[in-house]
Amino acid sequence: MTPEAVPEPVPDTFRILFLGDVVGxxxxxxxxxxxxxxxxxxxxxxxxxxxxxxxxxxxITPKIAISLMRAGAAxxxxxxxxxxxxxxxxxxxxxxxxLRPINxxxxxxxxxxxxxQTKKCKVGVINLQGRTFMKEGMENPFPAVLKSVxxxxxxxxxxxxxxxxxxxxxxxAMGWHLDGLVSAVIxxxxxxxxxxxxxxxxxxxxxxxxxxxxxxxxxxxxxxEPVLNRFCTALPTxxxxxxxxxxxNGVLITLDPATGMASQIxxxxxxxxx
Length: 274
Known about the structure:
The chain is α/β, with parallel strands linked by helices. The protein has helices at about 25-40, 60-70, 90-95, 140-150, 170-180, 225-235, and strands spanning about 15-20, 20, 45-50, 75, 115, 120-130, 160-165, 185-190, 200, 205, 210-215, 245-255, 260-270. The protein is globular. The N and C termini lie far apart (about 65 Å).
């Protein structure tokens, strides 16, 4: 008789590092400089980066997406500015590691989910966008994400959800909606890290917003004076990306790769100066 193959032991833990919205050239440079160091320091097994505002504060280009992947991002998520750089559309058809929200109407370019095999386990990533105070035309994210989660759980219990949304209430509701079904629900879009990180009762790590990777002396990444002028005068104003020291914000999630459930979530914040 041929002896049966002995299965490989399941590793005890798996760590996902997620970085919030990368804003413009300052954010890109900071991420490129710090991501390899953070991977080593935090012993991250898998890295996800939101590249939503990486191209001058609006959208992402193929060149920038490739640079973020070379820096260490396994997957890049996005949001409502994904179509702002037109050259990204054909690139998305070729590069599955660049995601757009799943609840764009049918026929939108690209895809919103991905499962990748790592040395320890398969990892699923879902990109999702909210509707409250956001662009119109998006499908309801709550039933849309359940369909994706059910399909993904046939391959792996390790599932990370980037919920790109404006309203804190919508993000918190999504956390409870998916508690016990996914490993983590982390919010993006508002660029300000929230202090509500926790592991929900059924094992899903949650935080309303991871924050941004962008200039500290700015208004959520934009130059201060043009934004102040807009608030003071209510007149249309073009915003540029701020400059100076950069704050790199994100979260580190520790989970059980066998069950997909999280045991810990930690806010990550580093300052980088060129």
